[in-house]
Specification:
The protein contains 4 helices and 4 strands, in the order E-H-E-H-H-E-H-E. By secondary structure, it is α+β, with helices and mostly antiparallel strands. A 4-stranded antiparallel beta sheet has the order 2-3-1-4, covered by helices on one side. Helix 2 (about 60-75) packs antiparallel against helix 3. The longest helix has 27 residues, at about 80-110. It is rod-shaped and about 90 Å long.
Length: about 150
């Protein structure tokens, strides 16, 4: 049976390996593979096949709507009329909202665009007999494995 688990690269991984060896798992049956984490920045704009759920135009749409209503209301008293001033207000509001959102995403949240949460850094693969699978799984969970899977 093969047991796969993921760990952060901490002392808990070393302790899990040593504990497995003490309980009879041969060193040749334990295989640890370190993973390379993402080094490049995540893309700011989404493509059609992948999206991160962050909308760039949401504030722009809201401010565009608000400014168009204000522009149309004030436009009744101005020379060009409410339609032109409503369109001008919508454009100005949208551009202002877009600028605010871009500032927030590019400057303020620059460091938060990396992957969030804990990252799996090492995959541990263990070959063991079926009789030891429960013990090995308990040892891995006891040493803070991020995930464990068994394959017969």
């Amino acid at each position: 049976m093969q047991i796969f688990s993921t760990f952060e690269n901490t002392i808990n991984l070393e302790l899990a390996i040593k504990t497995l060896e003490k309980h009879g798992v041969q060193q040749e049956s334990i295989f640890a593979v370190p993973l390379d984490n993402r080094q490049e920045d995540r893309r700011f704009f989404d493509t059609i096949s992948s999206a991160d759920g962050v909308s760039v135009v949401d504030i722009g749409m809201a401010l565009g709507t608000a400014f168009s209503v204000i522009g149309a209301s004030i436009g009744f008293e101005l020379a060009w009329g409410p339609i032109y001033w409503g369109l001008i207000g919508a454009f100005v509001g949208f551009m202002l909202g877009l600028a605010i959102r871009l500032y927030i995403e590019v400057v303020y949240k620059k460091k938060k665009r990396v992957l969030k949460g804990k990252h799996s850094e090492v995959i541990l693969i263990i070959d063991c007999p079926n009789s030891m699978s429960e013990l090995v799984e308990e040892i891995l969970w006891g040493h803070y494995a991020m995930g464990v899977a068994k394959i017969k």
